Every structure is written in C-alpha cells, then in structure tokens.
Amino acid sequence: MISIKSSREIEKMRETCKLATETMEYIEQFVKPGVSTEELNKLCHDYIVERGASPSPLNYHGFPKSICTSKNEVICHGIPSKKDVLKDGDILNIDITTHLNGFHGDTNKTFLVGNVDQKVKDLVDVTYECIMAGIKQVKPGGHIGDIGAVIEELAHSKGYTVVEEYCGHGIGREFHEEPQVVHVGKRGTGAQMKPGMTFTIEPMINLGSRHCKVLKDNWTVITKDKKWSAQFEHTILVTETGFEILTLRSDENVPV
Ligand code: MF3
Ligand code: CO
Ligand code: CO
C-alpha cells in the first residue's frame, strides 16, 4: 500500500527534509582532500542530533554509522571509516537521512574532490541530469515507470549504465515504504502517482557495466568492474499539479 500523506504529515515531511538538506549544505565545506569519511560522519551526526533529530541510517538493519559515504567505484551504502581518507580526484557520494518528529527525509549528492578527470565529471553531470529528468515526470496520473524510462534512456544515450538492484522508495513514517522506484523501465507501467505521495528518486549511474557486488562487510556495494559510479537523491512530493522537491538545496533550481 502506498501511503497518501495528509497536509499535516506533509508539513512534517517538509521539516525533516529541510534538516537533511541543511546537513548536506553544512558538510560541503569539509569535503576536501585529507578528510576522512569518519570525520564527515561525526560532523553530520552532531549537526543532526543538535537539532533534535536522529540520523536514520544509524542501526538501521545494523548499519553502523550515521551517513553513507560512497567513493569512486562504491555505488552506495559505503561505511564511513577513519582509514578512508579523501584525495584529489576522488568523487564522494554523501547520503543523509534524518528522522524528525516521526518522519524521514532522504537526500544524497556526489561531490567532486579537488581536480576530477573530465570523463568522471561528465558522469557526475549526466547523473544529475538523470535525476532531474526523472523528477520532471512526477505528476498525478503519471506512472512510476515513467521515471525509470526517462532515466534509462538518457543514461544509455550517453553510453552509461543504470544500476537495477537498488531503487528509490516511498518514504514517510518509515525509511523505506512502497512504492519501489526503479531507475529503468517502461513508460506507463507501475503504480499511478497521486497527490500526497512522497518517494525518493536516486539513480546510480555507472561508467562501465551495470553489475554490482556487495563487500564482506555486507553493506558496501561496488561495481563488479571497479569502474566509477555516481548518484544523486531527492525526496519528492506529488502535488495537485506536479511535484515539489522537498530536499532542494540553495545551489539548485527547480527543473522546468
Ligand atoms: N539512504 C539510503 C537510501 O537512499 C539507505 C541507506 S540504508 C543504510 O535509501 F542502512 F545503509 F543506511
Ligand atoms: Co533513499
Ligand atoms: Co538516501
């Protein structure tokens, strides 16, 4: 069952998503060569807790940290570590989810660390274009499958591949709710969108093959071929006329 949020619930979704967004904007200044992902984890953890919320990933199905940090060939669910120190030319995805007043807000962004290869910068740019193309499909009466269809088409047209094992998801009182938002597929398939639905769109786009594997820590997902992968994530509300991006940062524009 896909939950439809009431206007009171939507207001709480706006608040938790605003905090997740502010945490992302706060951490940006620290994403530099020499910082460890554990330091980034601690800074985000403290920022969230000081504002009366909690980081949703911490202890979620046993996840040991407060954010996910996924670098280079890591697709998603990377675990922050003191030993994982950023260096010039890396890309780092930081995935932040907050739990505030009973509701979760989920967002992620891939940061460039210093001077990144043009080939990799292009991957990050196209991944951002993919999330925005997906978001533009959101409107009442549209189908969830419309989102994956445009993302898959754009990614493939640029020679990239799309990860299929991990998806966007409904979000609200639960971190992961129905529906699943697959980032590939066919227009006109899947559940119909209705005003008051909230879900994430979070495409993972690869330079090489789409295939992935999970490391022995049982969390870290990497590309099988070790080629690099990028991701962006927003929490979206279906409105009467289209969409609202609940995690829009001040460095972004609403896509038209
Ligand atoms: N935030 C991730 C998502 O976008 C989920 C992380 S689950 C965790 O759905 F346990 F790894 F934190
Ligand atoms: Co998510
Ligand atoms: Co997330």
Number of strands: 15
Radius of gyration: 17 Å
Structural class: alpha+beta
Largest sheet: 4 strands, antiparallel
**What percentage of residues falls in helices of 4 or more residues?**
25-40%
Shape: globular
If helices are DSSP runs of H or I spanning 4 or more residues, what is the number of helices?
Answer: 4
Give the amount of beta strand, in percent: 15-25%
Mean pLDDT: 99
**Terminal Cα span:** 30 Å
Helix and strand run: HHEEEEEHHEEEEEEEEEE
Ligand inventory: 2-amino-4-trifluoromethylsulfanyl-butyric acid, cobalt (II) ion
Uncertain stretches of 5 or more adjacent residues: none
Structure, explained:
The chain is an alpha+beta fold. It has helices spanning 7-27, 37-50, 118-135, 144-157; strands at 54-55, 68-71, 74-76, 91-100, 103-112, 161-162, 168-170, 177-181, 198-201, 204-206, 212-214, 221-223, 229-231, 234-238, 243-245. Strand 11 and strand 12 form a beta hairpin. Helix 1 (7-27) packs across helix 2 (37-50) and helix 3 (118-135) packs antiparallel against helix 4 (144-157). Residues 57, 60-61, 63, 68, 77, 95, 97, 106, 202, 219, 233 line the site of 2-amino-4-trifluoromethylsulfanyl-butyric acid.
Name the features.
binds 2-amino-4-trifluoromethylsulfanyl-butyric acid, four-stranded antiparallel sheet, 256 residues, binds cobalt (II) ion, single chain, globular, three-stranded antiparallel sheet, alpha+beta
Describe, in short, the structure shown.
The protein is of the alpha+beta class.
